[in-house]
User: What shape does this take?
Amino acid sequence: MKYSIALTTYGGEYSLGKTNKETCDYWSNRPNEELVEHITGDTIKDVPDEYYLYPFFDQTDVIHTNGVEVNNHNYLEVVNEDSQETVYEVPLGSLREQMQMIDNPLKELKEDQILILTVSSEKGSWEYDLEIDTEFDPKNLRFFLHDLDETLVVDYIEYDDTVCELTDGSTRGVSFYAGFGRVYDDGKPTNTSLI
Assistant: This one.
């Protein structure tokens, strides 16, 4: 039996990468709009090479994911592909018992490591395919998450220990955020506003 699993409505592309204090200090003395313009379009031409961050998706050596945020405003919908019937629909935030954090790569970093976080916020759906021999059982779903600046993001999902492939989706950009922070001694990032 074939099913389509859709996670909607708000999420995006999230990147967390290592940088240094000098780069953070340089961009802290410029308007945040210029940082965003630089890393998304490379249109700020007076940036010295040592502070060059374009493109934003290259700043991903710690975490890079594209998915939906976990909250009660976003939904999980499962559709039987043959009948086009919705067989399961719930707020994503109601499934926390079926969620697991991915090992936190920040714990491998030194305390006070400077980080850059970029978020391309999007609205739409992230769709996964599932083919199984039995009826769909929602208890067999597992969601694997990243914690990015206290925002939980679904990185991937499994059904009965098999990874469901992200195969489709339709999203549109809503906003873009960039900021800097540092690692706490417990392996968590600070608030990633410019420091």
Observations:
- Residues 190-195 have pLDDT under 50 and may be disordered.
- Residues 45 and 183 are 30 Å apart (CA to CA).
- Residues 32-41 form the longest helix (10 residues).
- The beta strands are 2-19, 63-68, 75-80, 85-91, 99-101, 114-131, 141-148, 151-159, 162-164, 166-182.
